[in-house]
Write a structure and sequence with these properties.
With 178 residues, the chain is an alpha/beta fold. The strands form 4 sheets. Strands 3-6-11-14-16-17 form a 6-stranded mixed sheet. Strand 16 and strand 17 form a beta hairpin. The radius of gyration is 17 Å and the shape is globular.
Length: 178
């Protein structure tokens, strides 16, 4: 189960209650910063924008590719470790607005993690150090350290031990596909 807190609403769906949960001007500021960062090719500038204006915890040498979309409402709930790559057009959410409730949850992405393009990461998940997330994956639950995961719904393709063996095989036999 993902680590989210649930907040019930009554009347209209929870998105109609959005500005009771997050200030309008915060959303406007976050939107402007995120949109500027999505289009800039300068990795250091993106990290500076995220740390300075969005209060995100971003490790050194972490790279956000073009078009990465961070949670506009609660980006401060996203943390990313050192030397991690977030692939093109990935979406990272820390909130879900549903019909009768909204949910908030931190997203913790470890160090030395590779996240493929067009991945969606849902609130309340933790992606362990050294993991690889295949392109186009819906990350709806925790990813153990060192694993290779992919798909929709996400599943473990190689656990940490199998992935080490796979890397060892590639080093011995070259980059040959088996």
């Amino acid at each position: 189960m993902r680590r989210t807190t649930r907040h019930r609403v009554s009347g209209a769906n929870s998105l109609w209650h959005v500005y009771k949960t997050v200030p309008f001007l915060k959303v406007v500021k976050n939107f402007i910063v995120i949109q500027a960062a999505r289009y800039t090719p300068f990795l250091g500038m993106k990290n500076w924008l995220y740390r300075t204006f969005l209060r995100m915890n971003i490790g050194e040498q972490t790279s956000f590719a073009l078009m990465v979309m961070l949670d506009v409402m609660f980006p401060e709930k996203i943390s990313v470790g050192r030397n991690t790559v977030i692939g093109y057009n990935t979406t990272i959410l820390a909130h879900e607005y549903l019909i009768k409730e909204y949910r908030l949850g931190p997203v913790e992405i470890g160090s030395e993690v590779m996240i493929g393009a067009n991945t969606t990461i849902l609130p309340g998940v933790k992606i362990g150090d050294g993991s690889i997330v295949s392109a186009g994956t819906l990350v709806h639950k925790d990813v153990p350290p060192g694993c290779f995961v992919g798909g929709n719904p996400m599943r473990i393709i190689y656990n940490a031990e199998e992935l080490k063996e796979r890397w060892k095989h590639d080093e011995i036999y070259g980059d040959v596909q088996s």
